[in-house]
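User: Hey, my collaborator sent me this sequence without any context and asked if I could get a structure. I don't really work with proteins. Can you help?
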Amino acid sequence: MKEIIAFIRRHQVPASKKALEDAGFNALTIQSVEGRGKQKGVGGWAAEVDPHLNPLLKLETSVPEAVMKWIPKRMLTLVVQDNEVAKAVDVLIKANQTGHIGDGKIFICPLEEVVRVRTGENGPRAVS
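Assistant: No problem. I've predicted the 3D structure and written it out in structure-token form, which is a compact way to encode the shape of the chain:
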């Protein structure tokens, strides 16, 4: 089993959820997070890429310390069987890829064990 953690733009959540559901990945956790990549925060192009950033860009000033450096994103987490990883990653890429900086990142982590609290089932049965 693997845990897939994807950081995506906020406005891409509905498309990502639908694409994952259409592909058979119904179990999903979504969290609001903030972060930045190697560009160290928002540039002037950000409003074109993520229209939800328009109000935040108005907060920028000429003082470097006051410029917004953390970008609001969404973190999607799902657990899949080993043979489903490529499919899930492909679905996430297709739903989020624009070719612009900030499209996101996908991390694939090994999952040692899973236990379903309600039944006590563990391993692959706990996530199927």
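In plain terms: The longest strand covers residues 71-80. You can pass these tokens on to your collaborator as they are.
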